[in-house]
């Protein structure tokens, strides 16, 4: 890595920053330019939107929303959470516009808290929380793909009994297929961006066709729920007090808006990153939240029998909604379309995760960092980091044979860890002072910065606490939310890794002679 200083000019009363070429900006941060800047603003937006997959995530978690408060929490909770996530994304976009590097949040902390005795340890733990969160997201998205796939089979073979090895085989096939597609699509610079552009339009086409089909079929074969239910209905099947349930209902919205930081970990492949990065990340949230809100409203209107939807044999209430109005063939067509989108979205998740793994290896943050921190000149992507993380995620499949509770806890880390990783650099900025950010900067919140930062921190604190709640009061062993135990193990492991490897190697910058 080459260490430079950002070029500045003293203009008297204020300091101005001269932003050079994309390669120069990366060099100023201490890194060599290795990846090709193949993405444009649209393709990056398409990728971020596909990773968010908000309406698909809502389809998979529709039962959670109905149980935790129903329409009131699903819709109004989404509005509140969207604004809160926007504040988080805008706060991060401001930092991203100054430090556009794939390592993202962990690197920001190193820069913002430079000289503080806790900076490297805080950054290192953030890096591991973030990376494991993305690995968990690969597994989580693959499990949803498995559930949709098995739901399709169940439509035509209702008596078929699924064995544990069925889940295992489909899970493993999904994560390895996404890894191989990822590698092949990166071989030529135009393929991966166009792949994501096609994903965007296919996603929106599936979204429109599915919702139009639901509305038309409901009007023809069924009846619509009244507006009073859609915009004011309340359900509480949890045993928790109503006030708490309203906040627990935010879980669905928070999950649907998880992983917007994908743009950050792809930033070294985006031209003009200090401008395009912040815009792509924020627009992805608005598009995701907008499609998610429309999806929820249409589905709520199309519910035929609330009790049957909640207690559906498939375990996926959205499947029951489709089955009631579209019939078996229509439901199968809808599920196949969603399954395709879920798998393609998994490819994008694998892409972003591999860039983060590569970036942490480049800064000697993981064992054998020099081995994994290599860009293949033929495939033009970090092949070793991609296959390394896929091997680790594939081990999660073994948990299908061990314990559903443990598997659920590990997969739940996705929302928890990514939520925490996003807010830690904002918290760091508040601790060291916002004056640490260069000014003027390409994306600035100005006087709103403190307000946005505070909202982001408060939202993260609330959501993280709620993610650790069990589904009902006084749970037994099987009903306990073991995510907090999984998160504790992750933190312990990152500390052990810090003392074993990180404190000696992490963040070392090799200064090239003559620079």
Write up what this structure looks like.
- The N terminus and C terminus are likely disordered.
- Helices cover 68% and strands 2% of the residues.
- The longest helix is centred in the middle third of the chain and has 46 residues.
- With 515 residues, it is mainly α.
What percentage of residues falls in helices of 4 or more residues?
55-70%
Summed over residues and divided by their number, the pLDDT gives a mean of 87
Radius of gyration: 23 Å
User: How far apart are the first and last residues' alpha carbons, in Å?
Assistant: 11 Å
Biggest sheet overview: 2 strands, antiparallel
Helix/strand order = EEHHHHEHHHHHHEHHHHHHHHHHHH
Widest β-sheet, arrangement of strands: 1-2
Query: Which structural class fits the helix and strand makeup?
Result: mainly alpha
Shape: globular
- Pick out the low-confidence regions: 1-19, 510-515
Strand element count: 4
**What is the overall number of helices?**
22
**Strand fraction:** under 5%
Q: Oligomerization state of this entry?
A: single chain
Looking at this protein, list some descriptive labels:
two-stranded antiparallel ribbon, globular, disordered C terminus, 68% helix, 515 residues, disordered N terminus, 22 helices, mainly alpha
What is the gist of this entry?
This protein has helices spanning 22-28, 41-52, 54-60, 62-67, 71-96, 105-112, 119-156, 164-185, 191-221, 227-232, 242-248, 250-256, 262-265, 273-301, 306-310, 317-362, 369-372, 383-394, 399-402, 404-432, 449-467, 483-505; strands at 8-10, 15-17, 68-69, 235-236. The chain is mostly helical. It is globular.
């Amino acid at each position: 890595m080459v260490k430079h200083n950002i070029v500045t000019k003293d203009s008297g009363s204020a300091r101005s920053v001269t932003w050079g070429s994309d390669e120069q900006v990366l060099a100023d941060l201490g890194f060599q330019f290795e990846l090709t800047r193949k993405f444009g603003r649209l393709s990056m937006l398409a990728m971020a939107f596909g990773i968010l997959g908000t309406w698909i995530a809502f389809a998979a978690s529709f039962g959670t929303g109905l149980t935790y408060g129903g329409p009131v929490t699903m819709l109004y909770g989404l509005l509140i959470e969207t604004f809160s996530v926007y504040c988080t994304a805008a706060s991060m976009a401001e930092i991203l516009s100054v430090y556009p590097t794939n390592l993202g949040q962990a690197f920001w902390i190193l820069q913002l808290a430079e000289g503080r005795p806790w900076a490297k340890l805080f950054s290192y733990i953030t890096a591991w929380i973030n990376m494991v969160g993305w690995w968990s997201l690969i597994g989580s998205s693959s499990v949803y793909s498995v559930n949709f796939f098995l739901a399709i089979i169940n439509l035509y073979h209702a008596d078929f009994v699924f064995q544990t090895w069925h889940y295992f085989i489909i899970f493993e096939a999904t994560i390895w297929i996404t890894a191989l597609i990822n590698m092949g699509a990166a071989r030529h610079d135009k393929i991966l961006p166009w792949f994501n552009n096609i994903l965007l339009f296919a996603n929106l086409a599936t979204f429109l066709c599915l919702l139009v089909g639901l509305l038309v079929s409901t009007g023809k074969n069924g009846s619509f729920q009244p507006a009073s239910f859609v915009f004011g209905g309340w359900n509480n099947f949890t045993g928790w007090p109503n006030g708490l349930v309203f906040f627990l209902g935010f879980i669905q919205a928070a999950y649907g808006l998880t992983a917007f930081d994908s743009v950050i970990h792809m930033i070294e492949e985006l031209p003009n990153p200090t401008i395009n990065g912040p815009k792509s990340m924020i627009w992805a949230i608005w598009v995701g939240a907008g499609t998610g809100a429309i999806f929820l409203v249409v589905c709520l209107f199309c519910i035929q029998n609330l009790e049957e939807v909640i207690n559906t044999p498939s375990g996926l209430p959205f499947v029951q909604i489709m089955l009631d109005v579209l019939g078996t063939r229509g439901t199968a067509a809808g599920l196949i379309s969603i399954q395709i989108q879920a798998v393609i979205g998994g490819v994008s998740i694998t892409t972003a995760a591999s860039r983060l793994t590569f970036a942490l290896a480049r800064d000697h943050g993981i064992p054998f960092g020099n081995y994994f921190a290599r860009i293949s000149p033929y495939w033009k992507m970090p092949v070793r980091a991609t296959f390394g993380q896929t091997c680790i995620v594939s081990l999660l499949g073994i948990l299908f044979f061990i314990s559903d509770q443990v598997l659920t806890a590990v997969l739940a880390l996705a929302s928890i860890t990514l939520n925490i990783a996003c807010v830690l650099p904002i918290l760091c900025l508040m601790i060291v002072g916002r004056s640490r950010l260069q000014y003027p900067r390409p994306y600035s919140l100005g006087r709103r910065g403190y307000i946005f930062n505070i909202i982001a921190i408060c939202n993260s604190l609330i959501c993280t606490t709620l993610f650790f709640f069990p589904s009902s009061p006084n749970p037994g062993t099987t009903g306990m939310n073991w995510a907090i135990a999984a998160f504790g193990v992750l933190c312990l492991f990152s500390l052990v890794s810090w003392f074993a490897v990180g404190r000696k190697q992490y963040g070392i910058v090799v200064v090239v002679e003559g620079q």
